[in-house]
Task: structure prediction
Amino acid sequence: MSGHGPARPMSALASPPLRGTAHVPGDKSISHRSLILGALSVGETRISGLLEGQDVLDTAKAMQAFGADVVNHGGGDWSVHGVGVGALAEPENVIDCGNSGTGVRLIMGMMATSPITATFTGDASLRSRPMGRITDPLALFGATAHGRDGGRLPLTLVGAANPVPVRYTTPMPSAQVKSAVLLAGLNAPGETVVTETEATRDHTERMLAGFGADITVEEDGQSRIIRLQGQPELRPQTIAVPRDPSSAAFPVCAALLVEGSDVLVPNIGLNPTRAGLYTTLKEMGADLTFENLREEGGEPVADLRARFGPLKGIEVPPERAASMIDEYPILSALAATAEGKTVMRGVKELRVKESDRIDAMARGLEACGVTVEEDEDTFIVHGMGPGGVPGGATCETRLDHRIAMSFMCLGMATQKPVKIDDAGAIETSFPIFIDLMGDLGAVFRRENA
Ligand code: S3P
Result:
């Protein structure tokens, strides 16, 4: 079952060479943050290129519930009339964040230092994910959480009436935890300081600076120390959301999987905190070229061209994990068609994503005839070479968009079709995936439920 309707099984069949240009949707992380910071500034924020995936639509609805006026002007153009820091309204109903961990965790941070109460829920995937990593630091500001089963959703958060600023070192590499603390810090008086020992995506820091917050980042080689002065007046912005490198990974890796392919993916965000996959692919020997390197909206971007060619398995170092955390599912599918084994270390955060992504990929790859090894923090895929993966299996997607898209890509290059039990979750981040891949030449078939 998908979170938003009946299951939609689908198969990927051996595909002819993929050719053409893939315009992938807007960045999911930046889209969530644009809506949230828009809601916290006074006046109108204009956003173009917003990702209109279900995750972001759920955040837009939540911002309305907290008092912002969010308007869809069509064609990816949106506006948000914000209420300002410290002026959030109390929602009249439960906030349903659907499948989105980023949505619910950032929104909990946003409201934790306001004297209001809200109850959050989500789909079966989100209700199974840990929220203590967010509610623990929010308690330091003075907020109180009442969650199910040790802090899972549904969860009621009572915001602090008299918040205090916080100094917090994130215990795991998580941009969601860092961002929740920073957003909470916005409405606490004085200075909130967040330290991370591994750099994670820095869109919140960049965007807070863009909205006029007093924020500094100091890097000493061991850690990043982020200092935020509370209770600023945020100034509304005009934001052009760059295209999502995590979505781009699918047509790029599909081109590397399917013999004879040559695909251009324009305008890809290449923020170094997000671009680890491309370093890894290069090390595997991928034929990738970055054309037209430039800066847009404070983020580095380029047009990326991917051509099929032989790949070799490699060791992906643990210190790269945070910069490609969402790309391990598609990397592991690609690794199955490389020569030799690919070893992914330092990846235990994958176990608490929309699904346990190591387990979901391992079981699906095994069903397709691939040998894998795993422990809590490591995932190893034994490559079978181009055309070597048997396929002919049904893979469980577990309400996880990236698992669904990874197996659809793998199935384009297996000996027998690969079926997924439900394509529904793809709507959360890449609603045009099926059509876009079809336009490049992918052969997909809808199956009966
Ligand atoms: C995100 C952070 C990452 C990532 C998620 C988006 C964000 O999660 O997996 O898809 O926008 O902050 P973690 O912070 O849990 O690593």
User: Anything to note?
Assistant: The radius of gyration is 21 Å. The pocket of shikimate-3-phosphate is lined by residues 29, 102, 174-176, 179, 201, 325-326, 349, 353 (CB under 6 Å).
